[in-house]
Amino acid sequence: MWGGTFHGVATRLQRLHGAQVGLHPDFTIHGRDSEDLLDLLRVEFDLARGDRRFPRKATCLDGYSRCVNARERIEPLVERTFPWCKEHVEGLKLPVRVYVYTERKAEQHVLDCDDLLLFLDGAARVRAVGARRASALRRRPRGRVPGHERPAGGRARAAPARPQLGFPARRGPRRPSPPSTRQGSA
User: Fold this and answer.
1) pTM greater than the 0.85 cutoff
2) What is the pLDDT of residue 151?
3) Most buried of 33, 111, 116, 143, CB within 10 angstroms?
């Protein structure tokens, strides 16, 4: 039996089974570094130039993360969550549409928090549906998971990356547990 945070368990599972899905054994997990990678792509695609400021790296990662987690298109997400970025929707799509962000992560043997989620989701579905559908998972483009429909009557929920990345800092120092008062035979 294992215990731990989502990130700890997901990383352990990926180390054990990542080779089966083509993951390099020396991968590392990006947290805020993913923002920096997206920021480099903003510059590379010359997205930050113009009359109006292009969304900053944190907004780009937050939008990407929400799209991945909810399996939602960026247009409705921007309309609902980032209305000030409406004029930049095409620019926000560009690094992901041409798979540059994914390719750069693969070249550097890097995963982000969304990759952990997709891996665990895929692993759970493989276990639940068996080997026959596992082959369908591997053939599916863009990390889509067969049979993963949106909830009835609404949109899928997705959390921004920032709260998860900042959790250890907000939690504060660990408090020691109180001494045990249970008595038993020694």
Assistant:
1) no
2) 42
3) 111
